[in-house]
Amino acid sequence: IPFMRAVLQLWDACTPATKQSMKRLMARGVPFGILPGGSEEVAVHEFGKENVYINSRRGFIKYALEYGYAVVVCYTFGENDQYRSATFLRSVNLWLLQGFWFV
């Protein structure tokens, strides 16, 4: 939905999962959730198959320990059965994501 990110950021309802923004939230003691799979997980979606992309996203665990946050791990099963995607375009999706930050 166009402009949704801007609206959510205006209300302080979403923020990029960067080192700086996470540290800022944790320093303020704000409870929050993150989706470590991010756009890459969307790019590798395959109907009927669970694909998880968390390859190098472990920094949030370090910051949680540093700032005394509890880490609650959640996983939603069946999300991959909600829609079909063109798996033959996976390499194009990943290229778009790496070059232009969108799928």
How would you describe the overall organization of this protein?
- The chain is mainly alpha-helical and 103 residues long.
- Helix content is 42%, strand content 0%.
- The chain contains five helices and no strands.
- The protein has helices spanning 4-10, 19-28, 38-43, 59-67, 90-100.
- It is globular, with a radius of gyration of 16 Å.
- 4% of the residues are buried.
Order of helices and strands: HHHHH
* Outline type: globular
Number of helices: 5
Q: Which percent range describes the beta-strand content?
A: under 5%
What is the gyration radius calculated from CA atoms? Answer: 16 Å
Instruction: Tell me the distance between the termini.
Output: 14 Å
What kind of sheet is the major sheet? none
The total of beta strands comes to 0
Question: Regions with pLDDT < 50 over 5+ consecutive residues?
Answer: none
Average pLDDT for all residues: 80
Helical content (DSSP H or I, runs of 4+): 40-55%
Q: How would you classify the helix and strand content by structural class?
A: mainly alpha
Which SSEs are present, and which pair or pack?
Blueprint: H1 4-10, H2 19-28, H3 38-43, H4 59-67, H5 90-100
